[in-house]
Design a protein that fits this description.
The protein is built from five helices and 14 strands. It is an alpha/beta fold and 212 residues long. A hairpin with a 5-residue loop joins strand 13 and strand 14. The chain has a single domain, classed as Ribonuclease Z/Hydroxyacylglutathione hydrolase-like (Metallo-beta-lactamase, Chain A), CATH 3.60.15.10. The two termini are 31 Å apart. Strands 1-2-3-4-5-6 form a six-stranded mixed sheet, with helices on one face. It has a six-stranded mixed sheet with strand order 7-8-9-10-13-14.
Length: 212
């Protein structure tokens, strides 16, 4: 599996591109912005973007999903990637432009969600399997994506921290439960790629996360 990371505005979000080396099918995990590096990597690896996998519906994780942002990720119905999210976060999409305006960013066309996922669902890039893990707490529809020993955690867990729970739909007890029951039960060597900040691991967070 090929993995590339892009740190994007408006608030230094980590967006991750994963590519199955055999099929060259790709997924972008969260889409805060679309920059030249992403376009160049899709071209360099001759990859076709199959999915945009949203970890949750907050504005800073969806702001790059715009009509025809690049030929490689066109919103043409016949060629555009399928946008994936948990249904419980649909309400956040309607609030996206309100929050973007607060950051002085232009409004977006609210994206159409093509696939609503649930806990335990499997998505595939070629033969590469991506498991959906529902981890409510930061939002009610927050999910992580697990593949090839790597967990893409969105804003559920960060290095030595957890996602904020003071926004609508947030619940601190719930996020702790999600981490304990869904993330800390993964193998200790599982690498965690969060929505903001540095990579970490299940082993490190079990020992050092001050919220757990």
């Amino acid at each position: 599996m090929i993995l590339k990371t892009y740190i994007e505005p408006p608030i230094d979000n980590n967006n991750y591109l994963i590519i199955d080396e055999q099929s060259r099918e790709a997924a972008l995990i969260d889409c805060s912005a679309v920059d030249e590096a992403l376009k160049k990597d899709l071209s360099f690896f001759n990859a076709k973007l199959k999915y945009i996998l949203l970890t949750h519906g907050h504005f800073d994780h969806i702001a790059g999903i715009r009509p025809n942002p690049a030929p490689e990720i066109s919103n043409d119905e016949n060629s555009r990637p399928q946008i994936v999210m948990h249904k419980a976060d649909l309400g956040w999409l309607d609030k996206a432009n309100q929050y973007l305006a607060m950051f002085g960013m232009p409004p977006i066309t609210i994206p159409k969600i093509d696939i609503f996922v649930e806990d335990g669902d499997i998505l595939k890039l070629g033969e590469l399997e991506i498991k959906v893990i529902h981890t409510p707490g930061h939002t009610q529809g927050g999910v992580c994506y697990l593949t090839d020993g790597k967990l893409f955690s969105g804003d559920t867990i960060f290095r030595e921290s957890v996602g904020r729970c003071d926004l609508e739909g947030g619940d601190f007890d719930q996020i702790v439960e999600s981490i304990e029951d869904k993330i800390f039960t993964l193998p200790a060597e599982t690498l965690i790629y969060p929505g903001h900040g540095r990579m970490t691991s299940v082993e490190w967070e079990k020992e050092h996360n001050r919220f757990m």
